[in-house]
UniProtKB/TrEMBL annotation, chain A:
SMART domains: AAA. It comes from the Bacteria. Keywords: ATP-binding, Nucleotide-binding, Transport. Residues 18-27 have a biased composition (Gly residues). Belongs to the ABC transporter superfamily. This is Dipeptide ABC transporter ATP-binding protein. Transmembrane segments: none annotated. The lineage of its organism: Bacteria, Bacillati, Actinomycetota, Actinomycetes, Kitasatosporales. The keyword Nucleotide-binding applies. GO terms for molecular function: ATP binding. InterPro entries: AAA+_ATPase, ABC_transp_ATP-bind, ABC_transporter-like_ATP-bd, ABC_transporter-like_CS, Oligopep_ABC_C, P-loop_NTPase. Residues 54-306 form the ABC transporter domain. Residues 1-49 are annotated as: Disordered.
């Protein structure tokens, strides 16, 4: 069964959504590593960027640090997310990369309403959803769903697959009439490539990749517009990673989904993303299209990250330079002044400690002929440096 | 398994059938060739509970303890099935006499048949054990569960209250509380054990709920818009109840020995009631002349307590292997506070169960 021929039942297809057209784009010749190969497959043939469905403005999440049992006193705050802004357009995939503890997962939780932001706005179709509660929030939640990292803890072991995927309909009974649910759940299983007869099985009877498919089916049940995927393939085998990433791409084309795809694996993010944002210590360091970020990085942190990506070609590997960062990531409870990255940056000067570099196109690249280097980069001394050997 | 080197559009279809799915002979090949997605649903769906039950049925420890407990339950309800005598009938001429035909365990100081009294004594012990456990599990489970789920002030308050009850020494508390009670029924003892037993279960329940609450499936339900009631009943309670059941089963055995200990000290059940603890107490003064008076009720008590503790162990093992990840079981691995199974094994002649 070819991906393009996949049944897309009307019950699940969003109105007016384009049917899967570019799903075969990831096909390529057989090589050793499916993920690396998938990356080489490029990102052509994506649907064009539509209007923004999600606008994030100045998102802040501080977790208070308290002391004392009876009389809690706030002694500080972990600044997990500290002023993050970006747009998500209809039908596109925004990749967010960054190392552990940089606030990626907190952003994901804020987007789906699992955490309340300390400040900032999350505008879904122009409406700020951070202030919503009760019924209005529940209605918005239908449109923003989440796929979790660990397929072993994200499915309730005491529920059957049918109950897990059907639970969204119990919570939002207006979406599907009672008699129709079983059929819908079976359709969802089919859409994610599982046997529809598996309805009565329990999660522990499935492999990691299959469980992640179940999690994706649950996320699709309410026909959301946006799926926030928090490291959806990090817990999977490399061979299974490619399958799940390809499934996500196919579903995006079928249902016209917008993804926020969070990962620490740069290759996977490049493969699936239209645009990429690099996060460091609660702030965005750089953002742009995947080509701009991967081939023309201008922020030193991005360059350091990219220089650590394994290169499969031994000769190219010889010619490249690793950028080794010194020191550890500073504590998010006490981040450095000015530029967050300055404590580990080889270019840091006094200016970096005094002024926070804004996330915008650096002035030196703000010329019409600057080419792909002209993208937002939060660095006072942004300059292009090719770190990944030419392709 | 799918070939990782295959072209991607083939891999897209499904990952390979895992071991659990390999039950079917005619597995796969019905969908994409070479992709091997899970095949026909030949295997029966098995929940974790049915998995645990499957394990239990094959565990000789469980079978033996279940058999003993079943037998004890039957004679607790119908003691006349195996003992046709009257536990109160005294024949002073036969005081402390040894076994004779028809009276295999001999006679006690007042000339009552020891066998009949041992059989009739099961009722008090089992009643106290089951009622106290049910009460403690209900109270502790609910309070601990709420503390774990809501956290914050509730948690602090309930945990401190539990600590206060934890701090009451069992024997001293029993002597003080129960000496003022004149009722000869089992209920004051049951009430006292519930009062002292619930904090232990509450701690376990709280820990299990806190563990379950952190699972991604709870977050997933929240992200879908599930309210507190649904989250608690559908997602947390089913995953947190296993450790509570295990600890409650083991606690049942220790509660029975606690009842015997209190009765031995004269603070538990009062004489018109037939109880192993009372009989052991009465026999302890003449252990040299008539050891049979002490050995039979003490033996019955030991076997009963041991059976419940073995049952709890077997249930814990079954739930641990059936549980998807060790966290469910690890909470049960160390029931804190109460005496460990070995020290709980009653030695009523020296009534000082180490506690804390």
């Amino acid at each position: 069964m070819e991906p393009d021929e996949l049944p897309t039942p009307d019950a699940i297809r969003p109105p007016g959504g384009p049917a899967g057209s570019a799903a075969g784009g990831a096909a390529g010749p057989a090589t050793g590593n499916p993920v690396a190969e998938a990356v080489a497959g490029g990102t052509g043939g994506r649907p064009g960027h539509g209007e923004p469905v999600l606008e994030i403005r100045g998102l802040v999440k501080h977790f208070p640090l308290t002391r004392g049992i009876l009389f809690r006193k706030q002694v500080g705050a972990v600044k997990a997310v500290d002023g993050v802004s970006f747009d998500l357009h209809r039908g596109e995939t925004l990749g967010i990369v960054g190392e552990s503890g940089c606030g990626k997962s907190t952003v994901a939780k804020l987007l789906v309403g699992l955490e309340r932001p300390t400040a900032g706005q999350i505008r879904y179709r122009g409406e700020d959803i951070t202030k919503l509660s009760g019924r209005a929030l529940k209605a918005v939640r239908r449109n923003i769903q989440m796929v979790f990292q660990d397929p072993y803890t994200s499915l309730n072991p005491r529920m059957t697959v049918g109950d897990i995927i059907g639970e969204p309909y119990d919570i939002h009974p207006e979406v599907a009439p009672k008699g129709d649910r079983r059929r819908r759940v079976q359709e969802l299983l089919d859409v994610v490539g599982l046997n529809p007869e598996y309805l009565n099985r329990y999660p522990h009877q499935f492999s990691g990749g299959q469980r992640q498919r179940i999690g994706i089916a649950r996320g699709l049940a309410l026909r959301p517009e946006i799926i926030v995927a928090d490291e959806p393939v990090s817990a999977l085998d490399v061979s299974v990673q490619a399958q799940v990433v390809n499934l996500l791409e196919r579903l995006q084309n079928t249902f016209d989904l917008s993804y926020v795809f969070i990962a620490h694996d740069l290759s996977v993010v490049r493969h699936i993303s239209d645009r990429v944002a690099v996060m460091y210590l609660g702030r965005l360091a750089e953002s742009g299209t995947d080509e701009q970020i991967y081939d023309h990085p201008t922020h030193p942190y991005t360059q350091a990250l990219l220089s650590a990506v394994p290169v499969p070609d031994p000769e190219a590997r010889e010619s490249r330079t690793r950028i080794l960062l010194t020191g550890d990531v500073p504590s998010p409870a006490d981040p450095p002044s000015g530029c967050r990255f300055r404590t580990r940056c080889w270019k840091a000067q006094e200016l970096c400690a005094e002024q926070v570099p804004p996330l915008e196109v650096p002035p030196r690249f703000a010329t019409p002929d600057a080419g792909p280097a002209a993208h937002p980069s939060a660095c006072h001394f942004a300059e292009e440096r090719q770190v990944v050997p030419g392709e | 398994m799918p070939d990782p080197y295959a072209p991607k559009e083939a891999i897209t279809h499904g990952d390979g059938g895992p071991a659990a799915l390999a039950i079917g002979e005619a597995e796969s090949l019905e969908r994409a060739p070479g992709a091997g997605p899970g095949g026909a649903p030949t295997g029966k769906p098995r929940s974790l509970w049915s998995d645990a039950w499957h394990d239990l049925r094959r565990n000789p420890v469980f079978l033996l303890s279940a058999l003993i407990i079943l037998f004890l339950l039957v004679i607790a309800v119908w003691p006349q099935l195996i003992a046709d005598g009257n536990p109160y009938r005294a024949d002073l001429a036969k005081a402390q006499a040894g076994p004779e035909p028809g009276h295999p365990f001999g006679y006690d100081t007042q000339g009552r048949d020891v066998y009949t009294r041992v059989v009739y004594g099961a009722r008090a012990s089992i009643t106290v054990g089951i009622c106290a456990t049910a009460g403690a599990a209900l109270l502790g489970g609910l309070l601990g569960g709420f503390a774990g789920f809501f956290g914050g002030w509730w948690d602090t308050l309930l945990s401190r209250i539990a600590d206060i009850f934890f701090g009451i020494p069992v024997i001293l508390g029993g002597l003080v509380f129960l000496s003022v009670v004149t009722s000869s029924t089992v209920w004051p003892v049951v009430g006292f054990i519930v009062l002292l037993g619930w904090p232990q279960i509450a701690r376990i329940a709280r820990g299990a709920v806190v563990t379950a609450k952190q699972n991604d499936y709870v977050q997933a339900a929240r992200a879908l818009g599930a309210g507190n009631a649904r989250t608690l009943l559908r997602h947390i309670a089913p995953n947190a109840v296993a450790p509570v059941i295990v600890v409650a089963t083991i606690a049942l055995g220790t509660y029975i020995s606690l009842e015997a200990t209190l009765s031995f000290l004269g603070a538990g059940l009062k004489p018109p009631t037939v109880s192993w603890g009372i009989d052991i107490s009465a026999a302890s003064t003449s252990i040299r002349n008539a050891p049979h008076m002490l050995l039979w009720p003490a033996g019955a008590l030991s076997i009963t307590v041991l059976a419940f503790i073995m049952l709890g162990d077997a249930v814990r093992d079954a739930l641990a292997t059936a549980s998807p990840k060790p966290s469910t079981a690890s909470a049960t691995a160390s029931p804190p506070g109460r005496p460990s199974p070995s020290s709980a094994n009653p030695a009523p002649a020296s009534p000082s169960p180490p506690r804390r």
